[in-house]
What does this fold into?
Amino acid sequence: MVFLRTKDLAVAKGFENNPSHVIANWMRTYRAIEYLGLWEMLYNPDFNSLEYERVKTEAPENGFVMTPKRWAETTGAVGIIPSMGKYAEIYAHKDIAFKFASWLSVEFELYIVKEFQRLKAEENKHLEWSAKRELSKLNYHIHTDAIKENLILPKLTPIQKSYVYADEADLLNVALFGETAREWREKHPDEKGNMRDYATLHQLLVLANMESHNAAFITEGLLQVERLERLRGIAERELRVLLQQATNSPLLLGKTDKKK
It folds into this structure.
C-alpha cells in the first residue's frame, strides 16, 4: 500500500506550526470517523468494528477527541500509522490522505472531482473505441467467410489465397479511407499497427457495416468494381449521418487510437 505523510499536507496548507493538531481536528469530526471506519472495514480484516461503533456514538459529542494514536490503539486500524519518538510522524494510506487533503482545501477537492471526471471520460472513449473495434473484428469473420466460399478457388496456392483476402480488405480500405493499406503505410512509416488502428469511431462503425454489406454483395456475385462503387456510397452516406449526430454525442468527436 502507498502511504503519505499527513504532516506534509497540513504544512502545504499553511499549518506548519502545529500540523498534528490540524489532523486531530479533522479526526474528531463524525464524517472523518465514518470514512476511516468504512475504509478499515473494507481493507482491514482485523479491524475492531465493535470499538468503532462505540467511537461513532461518541463522535457527535462536543468533548469528543480523537488522535491517530488513539484511533489505531482502540480499533486496530492500519490506514493511519502514527510513529513514536522525538521525530514522530503520522502516515496515512493515500485514500485517507486524499480525504484529509480535501477537508483542508476545497481547491484540492475540486481538483480530485475534475480529475475523476476526466479519467472517466477517457475510459468511456477507450471502451467505446474497443467495442467498435471488436464489432469490426466480428464482421471481419463474416466477410472472410464470404470470400472463402465465393472467391477462393480450390486450386489456388496459400499465397494466392492471401492475395485474394488482402485485395478484398483493400477494397474496403479504398471505399472508406480512400487508399490501400500499403499506401497508408508508405505515408506513415513510423506508426505502429495498421490504418484501421488509427480510424475514428465513426469510421470503425461504418467499416463494420461495410464488411457485412460486402459479404452480401460477394454472395450475390457482384463484380468488384460494382461492389466498390456501392461500398463507397454506403461509406459516404453513413459517415455523413454519424457526423450530423456527433454534436449530440461528444465522445464520437475526434480520433481515438489504440495508443490511448
Notes: Residues 3-104 form one domain. The chain has eleven helices and three strands.
